[in-house]
Specification:
The complex is a heterodimer. By secondary structure, chain A is an all-alpha fold. Chain A has 5 helices and no strands. Chain B contains 14 helices and 10 strands. The chains are: A mainly alpha, B alpha+beta.
């Protein structure tokens, strides 16, 4: 592997694994009949955001700063979409988990690699 | 950063890699094909059925309230004995509704019996013979006259022996001969045919089939059939005025009917007010269940397909490690290598998805031809299938692609795989 190799803290590994599990569950939801009912392009839009989240966790796994940026951006994009879908619940477990992830990731942000 | 030329090069690299391993590419895209085929077939089936049922529901009239003894939908533990002792709606009640309901545009009454209809040596069994009142054709959408005319007000009030017959009844009795002006026999009585309805087909949500029906003025019908028979279904149909909701109309009809039936405020209604949305709601919940089952089954196929693609992409990266090393040593950036493998995975999945969609399209044609059923692959389902394939490609191809992009050029060139 090229670039600066930063040792991955255990907490970041856990975040990435939990994140991937959440992404798989969200991806299944993205094409569910409920989302399809909302509008023709919602499944595609929603799954695009979920894909971005998946990619962001790959970046986080490799301790890349772009992973954190992408995760924060996709977190906001996903919740804006959920507002449009009338499914936004701030007390929702995935919302809370994502919020905690962002705080932890920002804590480790300085030690991450800036390159792709 | 990512110019058109770069995209072309990336695409060309990816395409060559796919063409070089034809069998492997074909086998790995099969999973996606099967997954897309399963999911989109279920969605297409449901959408087609919904379109077809919506037509039938519209035919029932979205702004028509049906006053009947029995409700169209029941809860699990419905007290059937309560409905059983209810009185049937009467023609006098229809008259009162007509007089007192300001929100009603048109009101009609009908009662029906099955009977054999005869003409000379020909006969048609189990024909639904319906006695109707004057505004019936204004309330319902299914009186579509093909040849002839609707009943005149005098024929309604005088109870003249005239009939409008369905397309299949006309074919059964007269074959291809002229039916208008001929006398058919209903329960041994001669009735003059004044019109033949257009062929309409069978309804999927109700037992209404106008092709095997005969309509007669109510005042004549009651002279040949016993209107007091408890097995005879009787219905008052009330059509709402423009801009009046069904809820408003129902409330008004209830307000008119309760005093007529002398119901105390504490007593429940002894009549049912039905509307077409009750039927569609029932079907919608059934469709939701089918869609979820289809989604779960197809979802697993897609998941397996995605894992297959990821596996193939890892193999592909391993195989081309030295090539990646050469590309990188010649100045290829990490994002170029990344894009190359991602495009390969996405293209592979898109081809798989397109084959799945093509199979569904062929299926729609075969089913349409063989069963005469309208089976439509909608644009939204095509979009859904393609985007699902592309995103599966992106997810399953990203990790192998990223691993490839992070390879050290020196180590990669030395690779002996």
């Amino acid at each position: 592997m090229v670039g600066i190799k930063t040792k991955r803290p255990r907490l970041v590994s856990i975040i990435s694994i939990v994140g991937w599990i959440m992404v798989v569950m969200s991806f299944i939801y993205a094409f569910s009949p409920n989302v399809k009912k909302i509008g023709e392009f919602y499944p595609a839009l929603y799954s695009f955001v979920v894909c971005l989240q998946f990619i962001s966790f790959v970046g986080i796994w490799y301790m890349k700063k772009w992973g954190v940026h992408l995760f924060i951006a996709s977190f906001f994009a996903k919740n804006i979409l959920l507002v449009f879908m009338n499914s936004f619940t701030p007390g929702d477990i995935t919302f809370l988990i994502s919020g905690i992830f962002i705080i932890i990731l920002l804590f480790f942000y300085r030690g991450m690699d800036i390159n792709l | 950063m990512f110019s058109w030329q770069l995209f072309r090069e990336t695409f060309s690299f990816a395409f060559h890699a796919l063409v070089q391993n034809k069998l492997r590419s074909t086998l790995s895209l099969l999973g996606i094909t099967i997954g897309i085929f399963s999911i989109i077939t279920v969605f297409t089936f449901i959408d087609s059925l919904q379109i077809s049922l919506q037509k039938d529901v519209n035919n029932l009239g979205s702004n028509v309230v049906y006053v009947e003894k029995w409700p169209w939908t029941f809860s699990k533990d419905y007290p059937w004995w309560k409905y059983w002792i209810r009185p049937q709606p009467t023609v006098n009640e229809m008259g009162e509704i007509q007089k007192k309901c300001k929100d009603a545009d048109a009101v009609a009454y009908t009662f029906g019996k099955n009977a054999t209809v005869e003409y000379q040596n020909s006969s048609v069994d189990m024909v639904s013979v319906n006695g109707i009142t004057e505004d019936y054709n204004q309330v319902v959408n299914w009186v579509k006259i093909g040849e002839g005319r609707y009943f005149s007000p005098t024929e309604f009030s005088g109870g003249t022996n005239v009939a409008v017959i369905g397309a299949d009844v006309a074919t059964g009795l007269f074959n291809n001969d002229e039916a208008l002006g001929k006398y058919i026999k209903v329960k041994g009585r001669k009735v003059l045919v004044v019109a033949v309805m257009k062929k309409q087909g069978e309804s999927k949500i109700s037992d209404i089939n106008m092709d095997v029906s005969v309509l007669m003025p109510y005042n004549y019908m009651k002279t040949i059939f016993d209107t007091r028979n408890i097995w005879t279904p009787r219905v008052i149909l009330v059509k709402a005025k423009e801009g009046v909701s069904n809820a408003q109309l129902m409330s008004e009809v209830e307000g008119v009917l309760r005093p007529i039936r002398q119901l105390k405020p504490s007593q429940e209604d002894n009549f049912a007010l039905n509307e077409s949305s009750m039927v569609s709601k029932n079907f919608n919940s059934l469709f939701d269940i089918i869609a979820v089952i289809g989604w779960v089954v197809g979802g697993f196929s897609i998941l397996v397909g995605g894992i297959g693609i990821a596996n193939i992409m890892f193999v592909s990266v391993k195989e081309r490690t030295s090539l990646i090393g050469i590309q990188k040593s010649l100045g290829a950036k990490n994002y170029f290598i990344l894009a190359q493998f991602i495009v390969e995975a996405v293209v592979l999945c898109l081809i798989g998805g397109m084959i799945g969609l093509l199979l569904i399209y062929i299926l729609t044609l075969v089913i349409g031809d063989s069963f005469g059923m309208e089976f439509i692959l909608t644009f939204s389902n095509v979009m859904l299938g393609l985007s699902l394939s592309a995103f599966i490609g992106l997810i399953s191809g990203f990790i192998p692609a990223y691993t490839a992009s992070q390879l050290d050029p020196v180590e990669a060139i030395r690779s002996t795989y």
